Amino acid sequence: MTEGRTSGRGPGRPPLAAAALGDDAIVAAGLALLDEGGEAAVTLRGVARRLGVTPMAVSHHTGGRDGLLARVVAAAHAGLDVPPGDHKASAAEVAAATLAYAQAAQRHPAAVAALFARSDLMPDELKRFSAWVRGQIALRDPSMADRGLALLVDYIHGHLLAASVAPEDAEMEHTFRANVEQLARWVLAE
After folding, report:
1. What Cα–Cα distance (Å) separates residue 46 from each residue in 49, 56, 179?
2. HEC per residue, 4-39
3. Does this UniProt record's set of keywords contain DNA-binding (predicted)?
4. What is the pLDDT of residue 151?
5. By the number of CB atoms within 10 A of the CB, which of 1, 50, 66, 105 ranks highest?
6. Phi, psi torsion values for 147, nearest 5 degrees
């Protein structure tokens, strides 16, 4: 009955590669595509090709391209350590957290571009981070919360744009860090 079949799986069953397919492999392949070709490169077909499975196998795990892209963008921002919001952080703590975001964004700049194009992709971790920074500013001056967050975020993204054309500039990185620390002190009125 199984003559001619070499996989040992019944008709209509996915090949063994698809059976072992998991979120980590899908996200890693998606991140690689994002880094290589931006948001447009992150497709079900592209990930499937990298993993040796069918696009439907990837879709089954992600719920479609939007789900795939959301997971990839979330993974690009994973590990963003959001400090507990129950204490008044120092400007140095806010600057350190902000610089940690900048480093995550620098590792995967296409994820930032995807967020600019599609705000619905904003991962929960990044929403918590933004709320924490806004909250820290509001503890000092509620009227400055949105403006202060916008200043920090815009400065970081401006730096990322500059770094994309001069990637290994140590002096620019040093100046950036010092400016983020100064900007954090300013928006926190310290």
Report:
1. 5, 12, 40
2. CCCCCCCCCCCCHHHHCCCHHHHHHHHHHHHHHHCH
3. yes
4. 95
5. 105
6. -65, -45
| Distance between CA atoms of residues 98 and 190, nearest Å | 16
181 in Cβ contact with 95 (< 8 Å): yes
Token pair, residue 147, equals: 């403006």
Residue-range domain boundaries for the chain: 16-76, 91-187
- Which pLDDT score is estimated for 5? 47
Q: Give the pair of three-digit tokens for residue 93.
A: 């703590």
Query: Nearest 5°: CA angle at 167, between 83 and 173?
Result: 50
DSSP 162: H
The superfamily in CATH containing domain 16-76 is Homeodomain-like (1.10.10.60)
Q: Which pLDDT tens digit goes with each residue over 90-147?
A: 999 999 999 999 988 889 999 999 999 999 999 999 999 999 999 999 999 999 999 9
**pTM of this prediction?**
0.81
Q: Which amino acid is at 135?
A: G
Question: Given the structure tokens 């100046």, which residue do they identify?
Answer: 175
